[in-house]
Amino acid sequence: MKLHPQATAALKRRLGARVDLSSEGRWAASFDSSKISFLPEAVIRPRAEKDIGSVLELANRHRVSVTVRGRGTTLTGAAAPVQGGWVLDMRRLKRVRIDADAGMAHVDAGATNAAVQTAAAAKGWFYPPDPSSKEYCTIGGNIACNAGGMHGGKYGVTRDFVIAVRGFLPTGEYVEWGTATKKFSAGFNLRDLWIGSEGMLGIVTGAVLKLIPQPAARWTLLTAFADEATALKAARLLFRARVQPAICEFLDRESVLCAERATGKTVFPGQAGRPVILLEFAGGVSEIDDLKFEVLAWAQTQALAFKEAKNREEAEELWAVRRKCSGAMFELGDAKLNEDIVVPMRNYEKFARFLARLKRSSKLPIPTFGHLADGNLHVNIMYHRANASETMAAETAVQKLMETVVALGGAISGEHGIGLAKTPFLRLQHRPAQIKAMQAVKQALDPRGILNPGKMFEVVRIWKYEKMQIKLPWDHK
Amino acid sequence: MKLHPQATAALKRRLGARVDLSSEGRWAASFDSSKISFLPEAVIRPRAEKDIGSVLELANRHRVSVTVRGRGTTLTGAAAPVQGGWVLDMRRLKRVRIDADAGMAHVDAGATNAAVQTAAAAKGWFYPPDPSSKEYCTIGGNIACNAGGMHGGKYGVTRDFVIAVRGFLPTGEYVEWGTATKKFSAGFNLRDLWIGSEGMLGIVTGAVLKLIPQPAARWTLLTAFADEATALKAARLLFRARVQPAICEFLDRESVLCAERATGKTVFPGQAGRPVILLEFAGGVSEIDDLKFEVLAWAQTQALAFKEAKNREEAEELWAVRRKCSGAMFELGDAKLNEDIVVPMRNYEKFARFLARLKRSSKLPIPTFGHLADGNLHVNIMYHRANASETMAAETAVQKLMETVVALGGAISGEHGIGLAKTPFLRLQHRPAQIKAMQAVKQALDPRGILNPGKMFEVVRIWKYEKMQIKLPWDHK
Q1: What is the pLDDT of residues A248-297, one digit of tens each?
Q2: Residues 6 or more apart in contact with residue A269 via CB below 8 angstroms
């Protein structure tokens, strides 16, 4: 890794205490949730947006890589400075202001997702995107990977709620893409080009987010099914009836068993080990009353068993199950390939059959759960690192999974992004001309290759790297 | 204008009857709703998407401009082949297929907006973007300018409903951006870069569109106000209460007078010449019942007068007024600068005061109407072409309007796009670094400058050009 002592000294002179050269500071910024460490030369914690312009000016002059990070909750390695250089930690820029008339949040990139949700709710508004790390992850990071969450099917993902962004081009100029208005049709749309570009095409310092009215009523229903295919078919029937649950979470048999082992309780009393779908409906009070009737009729005919939450406490208990299943998976193996694939609804049953075959042929546990309203499933391939044949089976399984997802018209990532982890599969998703066009855009906006180099296009098999054995606050309990 | 007889002969040999070299055919493709004619050398009407690949291959080899058009309803000149070359008319590619389970429409670029709406409605689904030319304009054109319509405030614009697009890079390669899934986070987002790029960064041949459930109930209310500022303030209070009308159309005094002259009836009986807001609410039956109560209480305290539509026929009568006002404006002048600006809600009253001053200082009629839920107002500067002082006053007024809109944090175009018409104002909206970044992206994707040259970045004062005196089917009656 090339070092830049002169440039780093110049940076320190320019920005003083905002530049951290300590071993501890650099180590803490050397990895994200992929837990693979690449040490940067310096960590910069801007106090004002213009600091970022200074950093980029020096970086371009001295050809130093710059990797931007929020809290580093991404699982893909996208926030890891794989080529060293400098890391920009955005967390000091964290103002949140709600425009209660227009239903918009004006936020700095370093504000957490939860801070935005809380501020919005205090004014009767709702910000739906909710990655599971929402207490920790920043809006800047959410924009970088176009984060989703459980509400994606009905309400949409981060992209659907970003009205405007501001920040810096890779070459260091300050720019604003869009205005704080719901309509904007003036010039090429670099706002959305930035969203999901994983810190490679620009640095987002702030955004205007769209809010929607906070729903007055919520209603939660847990349903159990005989098997996975039946569950997925039932979900499809619900959507066909144009019913739009706010959340529609599926847990397959293996995920349910994990949750049951973790909690010592059956997920659905009397239906131990059955796949479940957990539904939440949100809307006006009478709207929800109308829906209940229709949804209960559906459950009656489709599900093996169902039970509604009588109140928010009961609902919370049901959601606790969903949150438990992910961490409990580490009883099935000490390594996990967590793939956030997406399958189009028309192919749900085909995918369920494929997954059953994959579990048999790989002889690995592959607990799967996820968001049925948008087809975004988390497929968790569990294995033991020290076991060579399991490791090989896992590598084969992930390749087959990705090939099948693309063949079924789906996506290799729904909400995590590419980073390092998905680079071996990018060319399954995209034709050579598509990759070429993306690289041409990168070259046009970042001619010196400053921002987050080594990601997206270079193939890295992240599972071959040594993973640090550390516990992060947002790791599933 | 440079001619390309050899290239055009090669094109004719390659695509035969799909290439129209007749004077009539070329004339009909020489203009859009801006009614300024630029004759192309050939019109190509592809029968299959691969024809477009052939056209682009020849165009790149021989350096011939290619301008794509649907029905040519755009008011900006974006579909006019200003540098001649070839025009691609997409209207033969017009399949529409509804996926009723997933709530998606799979459409070809040449399908009309109305065809998509009708097909969706037949399956109980709803496609909200509704430009006023919806019976004529194509989805490809809607995507090119990120078209909006009356439903933008609550539901969003074209961009919010495009899940995936396919088509050709300027250099001729076939590409697909996104999959038919609501989540996709794999690679740079060239889908949204294409949306709103006005045929300059790629050719859209088809799209997957998101649909939402068709609302079960609608309710229409007409409200009259003492003056414009009161009306705009009242609207802001409604939004502050987090009430989201599906449509919220404002007509200022001059627009109302136009409609009244056109129809010979008062818009609001007993309140002749008063500004009005026409509201439509959409949702579940009991949801709308709940809303009525709240909205009527608002109207009681805020409006001078109000009346609800008792049924769909009465509602239709009210909407007829809205549709009449635009055409009737030509009694105030034979020329119109129709600007689809956007103002942030917090500045509605400031904008109303500015507009009143502008009307006084310019001594021109400037009837204004538009979509209050998203701040997208149509400001119509009316003048007589033969009158030099009126013409100069109009030019001064449009410049002041654009400067004010940007100063108020708004957008110079909300749904029409830039084309030729808005080119004098693009640099008010965007910093030099932003324009440079857009041009770098254009250069990266279209190195030979084939697609729709002469638009967006070159300043053209469209009002100086001779306008053809023709009536187009979608001209407001």
Answers
A1: 999 999 999 998 888 888 889 899 899 999 999 999 888 898 899 999 99
A2: none
pLDDT at A93: 98
The reply to whether B422 touches chain A by the CB within 8 Å rule is yes
Q: Residues of A numbered 273-292 whose beta carbons fall under 8 angstroms of chain B's beta carbons: which are they?
A: 283-287, 289-290
Going by C-alpha positions, the residue among B462, B466, B325, B323 that lies closest to residue B394 is B462
Instruction: Report the mean per-residue pLDDT for chain A.
Output: 95
Instruction: Judge if B408 and B299 occupy the same domain.
Output: yes
Give per-residue pLDDT as tens, A361-387.
999 999 999 999 999 999 999 999 999
Structural domain count of chain A: 3
Q: Which of A171, A182, A285, A412 to mutate to test the interface with B (most CBs of B within 10 A)?
A: A182
Q: Is B100's CB within 8 Å of A374's CB?
A: no
CATH code: domain of residue A182: 3.30.465.10
What is the arithmetic mean of pLDDT over A202-210?
98
With cut-offs at 50, 70 and 90, classify the pLDDT of residue A476: low
Please check whether residues A186 and A295 belong to one and the same domain: no
Per the structure, the complete domain to which residue A256 belongs is given by 217-417
Query: In Å, how far are A33, A81, A86 from A69, measured between CA atoms?
Result: 12, 9, 11
B182/A373 CB distance under 8 A = yes
Tell me whether A235 touches chain B (CB under 8 Å).
no
* Predicted pLDDT at B264: 86
CA distance B201 to chain A (A): 9
Query: In this complex, is the C-beta atom of A457 within 8 Å of any C-beta atom belonging to chain B?
Result: no
**A228 and A180 within one domain:** no
Query: B165 and B36, same structural domain?
Result: no
pLDDT digits (tens, 9 = 90+) for B373-417: 999 999 999 999 999 999 999 999 999 999 999 999 999 999 999
Rounded to whole angstroms, how far apart are CA atoms A163 and A148? 16
Q: Sort strands B42-44 and B86-89 into parallel, antiparallel or unpaired.
A: parallel
Same domain, A139 and A153: yes
Distances (CA, A) of B470 to A8, A432, B32, B292: 66, 46, 11, 45
Rounded to whole angstroms, the Cα distance separating A240 from B99 reads: 9
